[in-house]
Amino acid sequence: MRIQVNGEPLETSATTVLALVEQLGLDVRKVAVERNLEIVPKSLHGATPVAEGDRIEVVQFVGGG
Questions:
Q1: 13: which of 25, 26, 37, 48 lies 20 to 30 Å off by Cα?
Q2: pLDDT tens across 47-60, in order?
Q3: What span, in angstroms and rounded, lies between the C-alpha atoms of 8 and 30?
Q4: What is the rounded distance in angstroms from the CA atom of residue 33 to the CA atom of residue 48?
Q5: Are strands 8-11 and 2-5 parallel, antiparallel or unpaired?
Q6: Considering the entire predicted model, what is its pTM?
Q7: Are 61 and 30 within 8 A, CB to CB?
Q8: Which helix (H) or strand (E) holds 17?
C-alpha cells in the first residue's frame, strides 16, 4: 500500500504503526508517531492500523549534549 511518511511517499506492507517503525529501522522506544494529524500513544503502536493513503509523521528522539 502507498502512504506518506514525513511528507515522502512510501510503499509498505506494514499493517500497524509498530511494524512501520520497525520497517523504517527506528528504535521503537525513541520515536513519536502521528497518524493523520493525531498522535498515536506508544502503548497503541502495535494496535493502530496503517491504511492506504495514511499520512504518518515520525519524530526520532536523539540524546546528546
A1: 37
A2: 999 999 999 999 99
A3: 21
A4: 11
A5: antiparallel
A6: 0.91
A7: yes
A8: helix 17-23
8, β-bridge pairs: 5
Q: Provide the 3-class DSSP secondary structure of residue 29.
A: helix
Grid cell for residue 24: 523504517
Cell, residue 39 = 498522535
Longest dimension (CA), the chain: 39
Residue 5 in contact with residue 60, Cβ under 8 Å? no
Q: DSSP per residue over 31-55, as a string?
A: EEEEETTEEE-GGGTTTSB--TT-E
What are the backbone dihedrals phi and psi of residue 20, each rounded to the nearest 5 degrees, phi first? -65, -45
CA distance 2 to 54: 8
Confidence of residue 44 (pLDDT cuts 50, 70, 90): very high
